[in-house]
Design goal:
nine-stranded antiparallel β-sheet; alpha+beta
């Protein structure tokens, strides 16, 4: 083999090695140094989320459940979604040169910051979530320590990612994360239930479980069906509201419907609409709903088909 042939062979090998190096370096840059995902979500102990309006949310994992801002339990579907997202997100591509300036500006002014902790004082991952791509199949994100933002996606998932982090446009809200559970009490933990029908007091009753006594609205003892009473008490094991609302003033002049006292907790319900006990809002939904407050707290929306198991009349126990 001539020296010239050997030279060309060596040159080809060097070029191949150089291209491999560039490819490996690029792959390393995209998949390792700028990796947004966390493979072991069981190690995630805290998630901190902050928007540009000053709203912050801290999700902490304790021995039994996730808690938001050290006050409320977190919805299981919401925490499962964000943990799945943290695990499955991948880099789709770097941001193009043409879009770079606009993406950086959006991230700086409207981006939502995410910090993910894995049983340590400093975050394992910190990144900022921006808006979606034009086709809504990717989301702009910037990983702390990176030199450029990236388009992030979940392979085979068609959609942008910010709602999976509880972000609506560029804002977050504590209420979107809170568990909707109102009552989760087993029958043996119930000592007394009072159901007052404010519009028709004769339907009201008190049921005490120590000696299983049913009292009518006058306070007189009444007969009842044991099976119906047990079914009624078991209905308190899982009762959820639909959502929480900020505008409690909506019930200032609303028609009160029920007062439900379970042990020491008091649920009050109010009509939605112009004097109707329960309104069908046909332009948006057909499910019957009511306003409600628990212990005179914040306003909730509850669904009739969920609470009609416990907002019963005395006749339904007899």
């Amino acid at each position: 083999m001539s020296k010239k042939q050997l030279f060309y062979i060596a040159l080809i090998i060097l070029m191949a090695a150089f291209l491999w190096f560039l490819s490996a370096d690029k792959k390393s840059s995209l998949s390792v140094e700028n990796n947004f995902s966390i493979s072991d979500t069981a190690s995630v102990s805290k998630i901190f989320i902050a928007d540009r309006n000053g709203t912050t949310i801290t999700l902490n994992r304790n021995e039994k459940e996730w808690v938001i801002n050290n006050k409320y339990g977190v919805r299981k579907d919401a925490i499962n979604t964000i943990l799945t997202t943290i695990n499955q997100i991948r880099i789709q591509r770097p941001v193009s040169i043409n879009a770079f300036d606009n993406v950086i500006k959006n991230l700086a002014t409207r981006g939502v910051k995410i910090e993910i902790y894995t049983n340590q004082e400093t975050p394992n991952k910190t990144y900022t979530i921006g808006n979606s791509t034009a086709n809504y199949l990717g989301t702009y994100m910037f990983l702390a320590g990176s030199e450029t933002p990236y388009v992030i996606h979940i392979p085979s998932f068609n959609g942008f990612l910010s709602p999976r982090y509880g972000i609506k446009v560029d804002k977050i809200n504590e209420k979107d994360w809170r568990t909707t559970n109102i009552f989760s009490l087993k029958a043996e933990k119930i000592s007394k239930v009072i159901v007052n029908h404010i519009q028709d007091p004769k339907k009201s009753f008190t049921l005490t479980t120590a000696s299983m006594i049913l009292l009518n609205y006058l306070g007189n003892e009444a007969s009842f069906n044991q099976e119906n009473a047990l079914q009624f008490l078991n209905a308190f094991q899982l009762l959820n509201c639909e959502s929480y609302k900020d505008d409690k003033e909506k019930i200032e002049f609303a028609t009160p419907i029920h007062e439900l006292i379970l042990n020491t907790d008091t649920l009050r319900t109010y009509a939605i609409g112009n004097g109707k006990l329960i309104k069908d809002k046909k332009d948006n939904f057909t499910v019957k709903r009511m306003y409600a407050t628990l212990n005179n707290g914040e306003l909730m929306i509850i669904q009739d088909y969920v609470f009609n198991k416990v907002l019963i009349t005395i006749d339904q126990l007899q």
